[in-house]
Amino acid sequence: MPTKQLIIRRLTCISPFSAAIALGSEMSGGIEDVRAEDITAINTESGVRIKTAVGRGGYVRDVFVKGMNLHTMKWVFWITGNYGSHADNNYDPNAMPEIKGINYRDVVAENVTMAARLEGITGDPFTGICMSNVSIGLAAKAKKYPWRCADVAGITSAVVPQPCEQLPEQKEQGACEFPAESLGVERMELQKCSFG
Fold first, then answer.
1. What pLDDT band is residue 11 in, cutting at 50, 70 and 90?
2. 13 neighbors 44 (Cβ within 8 angstroms)
3. N or C: which end of the chain has fewer CB within 10 A?
4. Short-list 125, 129, 178, 143, CA closest to 9
5. SS3 label, residue 83
6. Mean pLDDT computed over every residue of the chain
7. Helix, strand or coil for residue 185?
8. What are phi and psi of 187, to 5 degrees?
9. What is the pLDDT at residue 190?
10. Contacts of 194 by beta carbon, 8 Å cutoff, 6+ apart
11. What residue spans of the chain are helical by DSSP H?
12. What's the pTM value of the predicted model, to 2 decimals?
């Protein structure tokens, strides 16, 4: 069964050994229609981490993140297809995950070791990555090359420092728009309990 219509709002996190938001690695049922906004992370390994591996299958698609304020991070963006952990030895080594439609906008980060670690899978690249209006202040002891990208494709708009060549600058306005329509889960009405 997939995870879908997931909403994360007004989250503040301190997580030195993990991410503020992590999607995967168990995703064989799929993850889609994720919306996260107004996220603050302090002394956290990464802002949003998507992790998978060959043999996982499934998908992560249509993820929209906006309004992240990050302080003291190892990576702002971390997407990996090299997670390498499986629940048991009965997985299908030919099951390839699909990672596409990952969108970030309005991100401010400071004291960051590395802007991004984006590692798709050879022969199964992660596509549709979009980053817009992103400002990353590197730490005094930051890595020489702030972006590490392999087997990924997407676009960027107004991102500092300059991203890797797999994420070229797009001059067109409106990149990585956060969806205006609400998800069905937002229209649910909770029932009140009464004790009497």
1. very high
2. yes
3. C
4. 178
5. coil
6. 91
7. helix
8. -95, 0
9. 81
10. none
11. none
12. 0.90
Give 87's contacts (C-beta < 8 A, 6+ positions apart): 26
* Both tokens assigned to 7: 């909403």
Contact predicate 45/18, CB 8 Å:
yes
Q: What is the mean pLDDT of the segment spanning 162-179?
A: 88
Convert 107-118 to b/e letters by CB count within 10 Å (16 or more is b).
bebebbbbbbbb
Q: Which two tokens stand for residue 166?
A: 């797999």
b/e per residue 25-34 (b: at least 16 CB within 10 A): bebbebbbbb
Report the alpha-carbon distance of residue 7 to residue 194 in Å, rounded. Answer: 28
- Supply the DSSP symbol for 139: P
Strand-pair partners of 118 = 79, 149
Check residue 161 and give left, alpha or beta (phi > 0: left; psi -120 to 50: alpha): beta
